[in-house]
Amino acid sequence: MPSANTSNTPITIYHNPNCGTSRNTLALIRHLGIEPTIIHYLDNPPDEATLRELIAKMNITPRSLLRTNVEPYERLNLERPELSDDKLISAMLAQPILINRPIVVTEKGVKLCRPSEVFLDISPVPLKADFVKEDGEIITKQHPKQGA
Hints:
This protein is an alpha+beta fold. It has helices at 20-31, 48-58, 62-65, 71-75, 85-94; strands at 12-15, 37-40, 103-106, 109-112, 131-132, 138-139. It has one domain: Glutaredoxin. It is built from five helices and six strands, in the order E-H-E-H-H-H-H-E-E-E-E. Strand 3 (103-106) and strand 4 (109-112) form a beta hairpin. It is globular and about 45 Å long.
């Protein structure tokens, strides 16, 4: 496996090492020979401007980035549809565990990489060899995400 970053533009991953999807995405990036900048977002959460910029670049709503299977979601009653984007962003800033992950930033775009192979949509290099996820699932070099 190559170790040098083969892209000209840095890659950043907002990562939670306790999340299998996040670990698989990081492993896939490294499988492609790229060593990204890793932001452990629970310890070093994005500021408001950065979070808003990530959401805008992903072309999603704040609600789409919100994790619903964590305790603060229920406690804060974030399921209420009348909550504004600003309220949801404020909740994510106050409780970073509410931010879904992994978010990856490359020269080709920004994506919430769920599942991990979504990264291939914005990868600066193609997948040249099959990649095996933690659970044994294989992402093949002929994967439909290739060729973008």
